[in-house]
Amino acid sequence: MINFQSDYLEGCHPKILEKLIETNFKQSSGYGNDEYTKDAVLKIKKACNKEDIDVHFLVGGTQTNAIVIASILRPHQGVVSAISGHIVDHEAGAIEATGHKVLTLPTDDGKIQAEQVRELYHAHWDNPMRESDVQPGMVYISNPSEMGTLYTKAELESLSKVCRELDLPLFLDGDRLGYALTSPYNDLTLEDIANLCDVFYIGGTKCGALFGEAVVISANPLKRDFRYTMKQRGSVLAKGRLLGIQFSVLFEEDLYFKICGNAVDYALKLRHAFEEKGIELHGHSLANQQFPILTNAQMNVLKKKYGFEVWSKVDESHTVTRFCTSWATKTEDIDALIDDIRLM
Amino acid sequence: MINFQSDYLEGCHPKILEKLIETNFKQSSGYGNDEYTKDAVLKIKKACNKEDIDVHFLVGGTQTNAIVIASILRPHQGVVSAISGHIVDHEAGAIEATGHKVLTLPTDDGKIQAEQVRELYHAHWDNPMRESDVQPGMVYISNPSEMGTLYTKAELESLSKVCRELDLPLFLDGDRLGYALTSPYNDLTLEDIANLCDVFYIGGTKCGALFGEAVVISANPLKRDFRYTMKQRGSVLAKGRLLGIQFSVLFEEDLYFKICGNAVDYALKLRHAFEEKGIELHGHSLANQQFPILTNAQMNVLKKKYGFEVWSKVDESHTVTRFCTSWATKTEDIDALIDDIRLM
Amino acid sequence: MINFQSDYLEGCHPKILEKLIETNFKQSSGYGNDEYTKDAVLKIKKACNKEDIDVHFLVGGTQTNAIVIASILRPHQGVVSAISGHIVDHEAGAIEATGHKVLTLPTDDGKIQAEQVRELYHAHWDNPMRESDVQPGMVYISNPSEMGTLYTKAELESLSKVCRELDLPLFLDGDRLGYALTSPYNDLTLEDIANLCDVFYIGGTKCGALFGEAVVISANPLKRDFRYTMKQRGSVLAKGRLLGIQFSVLFEEDLYFKICGNAVDYALKLRHAFEEKGIELHGHSLANQQFPILTNAQMNVLKKKYGFEVWSKVDESHTVTRFCTSWATKTEDIDALIDDIRLM
Amino acid sequence: MINFQSDYLEGCHPKILEKLIETNFKQSSGYGNDEYTKDAVLKIKKACNKEDIDVHFLVGGTQTNAIVIASILRPHQGVVSAISGHIVDHEAGAIEATGHKVLTLPTDDGKIQAEQVRELYHAHWDNPMRESDVQPGMVYISNPSEMGTLYTKAELESLSKVCRELDLPLFLDGDRLGYALTSPYNDLTLEDIANLCDVFYIGGTKCGALFGEAVVISANPLKRDFRYTMKQRGSVLAKGRLLGIQFSVLFEEDLYFKICGNAVDYALKLRHAFEEKGIELHGHSLANQQFPILTNAQMNVLKKKYGFEVWSKVDESHTVTRFCTSWATKTEDIDALIDDIRLM
């Protein structure tokens, strides 16, 4: 069985394991106050081409979203998100557990647009009974979105402009950021994101690390005391060096981008193969996840050899499925799958 | 510089790294639904000699304490702890952040006794204005305690008896449990703990793992829905296998106990060396941490070659210090330190 | 200007003021431990024809909803509500502030049906990734609903049956309960509600009291420790007698039902007048709120003499408005308004 | 039986009842947007001799403390209080329920001093592991304190100075403020308090109102969005006019101060009578509560005719008791009690 079910099926890039072995018996300070972490911070600042950012390392995505959001909002505020956003239905109420409502915006493609934010903002502030309502306090987006679509530079610039005008911090969930930035359809750089967002994170778990997400805070008012919230949520790793080592390796000689770029190449080849076969794809996913709409017969054929995810039912005979590639996907496995699609 | 500052200065036991390498490209399900995790659960059940327990793996201690406590208490209840308990002053208000007060009991040695719990319970329930007070809802202890002391079997039996009588779940924080159970002064087994406590955890981070704590739930009413709270707190690792692999290795052929036992041997040798030198030790620590009370002159001598922690000031010329051994401590380093103590 | 904007424009029924004056200098215990409160509890038990219920008095609706819901749910659970429910968008995120998500169901008429609850329940429990989702933990309805519609006895029986089968406590928000129970279209009694719901409240603020809501808990497991949560939320009135006195007066010789019944008569006369004039009413409101859809011209005419609420825009020339009657509405004011509708 | 058990045994000052009757059928806007509330705000501004303050009305003390504190602190911060503070052990964990720890300071007399705040602040910020600790975020005091003692102007000035220097908002709980300000031993004015504190409240419940507390916010950064937190905590009264009417009456022609002043006179007479009899008083209470230490025999004599509170046991034969006077205390009742003390 060859699995394309998700991008967290394997361990990590071998270079990380090598570094873990090499450093295993070196003694270092705990809680991220170590040399490896310092090195990783420097490399990320360099990759963002920005000195005045704070970088913190966390273990996973839900944890990161909850901590970033809780550190920004005041008790009566909520976070604005696309209705399809990961924080809405996939994080077990983690945001609500910190006392905050998620204010949802409709979306067809997983993205939200600047005008939607502006409208929601004014709908709140123009309401004379606004105090009965949850005040919008920040904006959450992800890139790629839950549907694999990518924000264009123009879209992100508009969002950023509106958010700054309305004093709503903009937070970009970059769980799979490596796969967005290396898509041939992408026109954003890490530097753009660091400049346009107030806070974002660079996902490690799904992009070559054993685990780990690097939070980058650009906006000065959001920097203060961030580590307290991390600590309070039980998210400061005793052996913080593990996160430092991993990001230090991933940001050495662009490894992060190289391995993510390969995965996206494979995914787009796969997309092409489905399209050639006349199989429609759900949404316009341009990164490492592809959502072919398969007939029951096609599903039955493919599931003999391949693992993939059932995403949603279309009708009795059609199903949206998800195939993920990753930093760990092998050329021969993609080739085999493409051959089998052609032969279907 | 040889460091004895803490027991989380290095990576992990080499056998864990070997297993990570061996399994790195094997694909497995996420979120702990993998074969390694299943294997680790089986081994822990065997080590506890108890089938009807639930075992869950979490990343760190503060996270574990907050999740266990939040999963048990109702909103108006608090958790009873020794005033010196880790949850009181060392976890950044993590318990309060889940809405609960920590109800503290005085202690000289880091432990609490059954009678104290009974008194606090009755002080609450005998108060006609009890609804203005926080209701005691569970009891938290740690073994070894924050001061390195150990609960005897008799003490834990008494506590357990009172807690069950009063319907207060008993939670044992086993952050350094390996070092407690392998002390020659200990008379408790893992099986005893599983039988006497309603929930406890077996610490991995400080006992040979890169990170990880194994929560064991014995009491049936506490088992339900535990994973939801884990997920909501962002504590279900995408690559849950990492926790499974580590505990599977640690509980293979008693590795966990062997490596912790070594560390305790070293620590007790160290204790002996201090005592022989006429240096008083703070408290009666019988596990891997020792707290010698050093003069300024002694501190100056030792800090040239050794790292250790300043614990608390006694007076202008005396300081309580902490020396930790761990699974990673080397014989030659302990020998060197003991020689230097003798020569002081 | 004669106001029909809401049902909380005036003070309280004169008999309550009389009783406040009569008792003003009598000394009584605080926090609801007084004779007036005991008397009110007895009268409510009698009105419910049920001995084994707990009755507590709170100050307002949002407070009551938050306390009841927080006292029932475990941290990972959410409350199921119609999308139009008061707790969704009108309480400033009070439910989320207690850590819980509101799980919404679509509705056309403000009510939810038993089958919707069953489907949502199964959608959750059939999801293999259910732990990423918020677990449904109870069901919230209001009667009358936000749109003024009434649950029939058959509907409430079905809901109750499904909720008990699925172990989801059923909570009825009775903010305007008096106006529901006295509608000629209603077939439910207070006794039915006490038997079919696990907890509900009898609204006082909008039904003749200065303020106050009487929470009735029928389900035994929900009774325990309720006053702790009240106290913790700052909702135990020092002079609890004020609530006792008010409900004692309201439930003396059916005063509550008499004054609410009058208000509903007025509202239905108003409804009839609008209908006769060919003015459509939004929804099928059968209690003390009526929602005529007025043209701009009609609005301009009426707003010269009458206060009413703009509910929502239909199109450029039509608006849903709300006219409320209450225990304080005067016959001459209703007559004047009906005359003016006819003359429009 | 004549009761001196507390200062909330009766209803309210008759002038308030008169005003409630007079205004009962006048229609007004809800939620505090009414003329009575506006009038009360103006009067309080005048009494504080300060225009640039925000005034909000809440129902009770625990509610007010929780809302003010939750509106100020960030999630990782705690509130500093005397160990005897009302928020520590008398509010059912209301502060912890909003996610915050109470950081306690020792006290002999119920007050805290500027230097204690400075030390706690530096102990936190000088700690290299400070992120494991809860950051002090504001200071809570009450005047009179829980023990009836009064802050001198010099003490409050020092506290205010330190708090402003350290950027810790200073909040004064004025549950019984009327009784502090009218004590002959007091040298503070309402204006002083408004200038020296960042936020405080003027207690109504215990000082002549049926219920109600007036929150005064002096510090500009604390003003923003306060009503959202009120609403979210279910503390915006639908008939907000009830609070406006009460404070409007209490601040008409200094009624608040007159009635509180009488109560303090009575209490000090009582103190004198106990002292003359050779009965020691616990603490140095200078307002409306007195804490005589009675022998069992004395208690038995007095409890035949008078209600009072048992405060704490001193030894087998002595008990600290509490006698409260209030706006409702009658001259003849005080005279009778004093006679009986003399005859004991």
- Classify the helix fraction of chain A into a percent range: 40-55%
The oligomeric state of the chains shown is homotetramer
Share in β-strands of chain A? 15-25%
Order of SSEs of chain A, N→C? Answer: EHHEHEHHEHEHEHHEEHHHHEEHEEEH
Work out the helix count of chain A.
Answer: 15
The radius of gyration of chain A is 21 Å
- How many domains is the backbone of chain A divided into? 2
CATH architecture of the largest domain in chain A: 3-Layer(aba) Sandwich
Supply the helix-strand structural class of chain A.
alpha/beta
Contiguous low-pLDDT stretches of chain A (5 residues minimum) are none
Under CATH, the topology of the largest domain in chain A is which? Aspartate Aminotransferase, domain 2
Mean pLDDT of chain A: 97
Shape of chain A: globular
CATH class of the largest domain in chain A: Alpha Beta
Q: Tally of extended strands of chain A?
A: 13
